[in-house]
Amino acid sequence: xxxxxxxxxxxxxxxxxxxxxxxxxxxxxxxxxxxxxxxxxxxxxxxxxxxxxxxxxxxxxxxxxxxxxxxxxxxxxxxxxxxxxxxx
Length: 88
Fold this sequence. Notes:
By secondary structure, the protein is of the alpha+beta class. The chain has one domain (3-78): RimP-like superfamily, N-terminal (GMP Synthetase, Chain A, domain 3), CATH 3.30.300. Helix content is 36%, strand content 30%. A three-stranded mixed sheet has the order 1-2-3, with helices on one face. It is globular and about 35 Å long.
């Protein structure tokens, strides 16, 4: 099983308790740094407090899994939502 699949499997159930869905996970190199990007979604969107709560759930799981030899920055964010415009 690939590392990102293991992460998805490990965090999906705990995040379901907050009605959060894991939208995507990617591990990328940005210049000299690596970044683990986790994008989350929820029915009516996710506010900053919920992102912080989700990050506090995800962090210890990642520490326990210890899947990356490289140092990385964890970036947990919400799925971008388009702006609705009122065109007439």
